[in-house]
Every structure is written in C-alpha cells, then in structure tokens.
Amino acid sequence: RYRNFRTFTSPRPSQFSCLAVDSSGEIVSAGSQDSFEIFIWSMQSGRLLDVLSGHEGPISSLSFNPMKCVLASASWDKTVKLWDMLDSWRTKETLILNSDVLVVAFRPDGHELAVAALNGQITFWDHENAVQTGSIEGRHDLQMGRKELDKITAKHAAKGKSFTTLCYSADGQSILAGGLSKFVCIYNVKEQILIKKFEISCNFSLDAMEVCDHSSQAFSFINVFSNTSSFSWFCEGEWNCKSNSLTLSLLNLDRLQKHSFVLIYSSLPGRSWAATTTEGLLIYSLDSGLIFDPFDLDIDVTPSNIRKKLHQKEYTVAIIMAFKLNEKKLIQEVIEAVPSNEVDVVCSSLPDLYVEKTLEFLASAFETSCHLEFYLIWAHKLLMLHGQKLKTR
C-alpha cells in the first residue's frame, strides 16, 4: 500500500501552487504563490537543492522538458521562464506574453512549448530560439452560460474565460485543453483548429450550464415553477435591438457555483485520456473493449476464481461470474470452454437475467467469431428453453 516516504519543506513557510517532477523522477519542483519563488528538491535525499527567484507574480504552473534538463515556469507576471538545470539553474530564456500565464506544457519530444494565458489564447513556442510558432484563440470554445450572480451577459462573461490545464497527445499533433467550462477541447496544433469538443457534464445543479433563446419581445422576465422539482428557476434576459430577439439565461437559485478541471492527462499510446473534474474522474478511450464495467460485483469474482470453476466443470457458475466481471474476452473464454454436449444443461440452469446477457453476447459474437455453429447451438437452446419468457416481457 502507499505510504509517505518523503516530505519536502521550504526554508520559510510558503503556499505552494503547482508541482512538477522531471522525467527521471529524481528532481521535484514546486512554485510558490506568495513568495514568487520556485523550490527544487532531490527525490532521493529530500534535500532542498535550490531556490529560484526572478518572477514578479505568483507561480501558476511548472513543466519539465521530457528530453532536456530544462524547467519551464509560468507566472501571473505575464512571463514564462526557462531554467537550465545543468547551468546552476540559471534563466536560459524569458518568454513575454500579453496576459497572465496560467499553464505551460512541453510536447512529448521536448521541441515545443504550449502556453495558456488568461486572455483565452494558447500559444506555441520554439523555446530554443524563443520564437512563437502559432496560437489558438480558444476563449469562445469554452462556451459557458451566465452565472447566477453575473451582472453581465454570457457573451461578455466569455471574455474572461481561459484554459487552466493543457496536455499534448502522445504524437504531439493534438493538444487537449480544459478550464472553467463543461467542455474539453481538442485542437490540431499544426492547423490550429478545433477538432472536437467533449461535453463532460449535463448536471444542471451546476451554475451556468444552460442557455435558452426566446424571440418574443413581450417577455422581459419569466418565473417558472415546477411541480416535479424542488428547485426554483428563473430567466434573465437582455433585449437585442439589432437581431430583434431576447437572449435568456436559465439560472438556478440553489446551484453549485463552479464546474472546473484540475488536470488532464493523455495515455502513452494516445488512445485514451483522463480528466479530473467537479463530477469526478472521467476516462475517454478509443478502445471501448478496455472499459471495465462490472455488474453485481463482489470480492470473490476474479478471473482466477472463474477459471477455477471452469476447471471444476461448474459451467453455469463460471458464466454468471464472468458476466458479473463483464470482461468480453473472459466471457468468450468461458462460453467457448463449455462442451457442446453440456450446452443444454447450462442453458436450462441459467437465471433469466443472465439468459438475456448471454443472448446479447451471442448477437455481438456472431459478427466476429469463427465458431458460428457452436454459437448457433447456444442461441437455439436458449431460445427454445426461455423464448416464451422473453416473449412475454
């Protein structure tokens, strides 16, 4: 189990705002929010190696170059500083931006640096030559509604939105960005265009999650009371003379105030990514077969116990346990391990709930499996024994 084996402390009390570990796992760095300093420790000894000074605002983000001994630090003083680990942690370069810097991230090959600022822009830099190579205007892609206490429209409020976390894909061709929004955006770095937006929440108990439009000039204020909900809703609107329409923002009096991202990480093969959000840990993957979605699981349902039941020729129990674990390859292994002369007995002893699950599995297996006759025997026996029950449902 995990335990605390090392504690890093600063010479004087400081409020740490960000953390980074180099690719070797030997160097740990933390940025301070009050003293504007960066502290460097050795993971092996726990000793403070250096204190880096130079920023004139709180340190918002740190990132180590995965290929070189370089640390990038972002600050609210509108600068990104590059520190050379091999040159006594001296400032190698300072990148000047037009707005407070919120987060920095190196491309996996270490040749490019992505920077997200308070103005909603993501800029890309050749950090070796301190040259900006591109930028993405992502402020409007965050697309937040109007909050309960906002005194301005959602359109004007969007001007203050920004990304607070960045992560490159494994190949470095795309970048994921998230912030105080219900969307995660994926951009193509080379083309600097939005590829896809993921709406990660439909929770209307969070503030500013819904926007509605009304074309009638007669409405200026609407009270809506629902008999099926404990919430009281109301709409506030602003009349637009040019478009002859009224934009209404639907609000909730008892809402949570924020929907935010803490971190976004991409997997090494680049086929999945995860985000920690207000709603919890969310994992998106191109490989749907890798999703672990157990059904009625308990501690005794394990692959080893399932194979033990197969060895003991308790086929019905093994099938039920396999469906509880709900791993497709394991279900296939168990069903194909049942001898054809035992299929009739197993089908007759399956509970109704698992009859449906077995038929669903067979339907998908017909498209890919080479054991077509064997699966047809299964389907025939199940329908002959349980068809009448299934028909009456």
UniProtKB/TrEMBL annotation:
One Pfam family in the UniProt entry: WD40
Gene3D superfamilies cross-referenced by the UniProt entry: YVTN repeat-like/Quinoprotein amine dehydrogenase (2.130.10.10)
WD repeat ranges, renumbered to this chain: 52-85
Major subcellular site: nucleus
InterPro entries listed in its UniProt record: PWP2, Quinoprotein_ADH-like_sf, SSU_processome_Utp12, WD40/YVTN_repeat-like_dom_sf, WD40_repeat_CS, WD40_rpt
Location of the protein in the cell: Nucleus, Nucleolus
Organism domain of life: Eukaryota
GO annotation, biological process: maturation of SSU-rRNA from tricistronic rRNA transcript (SSU-rRNA, 5.8S rRNA, LSU-rRNA); ribosomal small subunit assembly
The entry's keywords: Nucleus, Repeat, WD repeat
Domain spans labelled Small-subunit processome Utp12: 326-392
Gene Ontology cellular-component annotations: Pwp2p-containing subcomplex of 90S preribosome; small-subunit processome
Family indicated by similarity: Belongs to the WD repeat PWP2 family.
Annotated protein name in UniProt: PWP2 protein
Source organism phylogeny: Eukaryota, Metazoa, Chordata, Craniata, Vertebrata
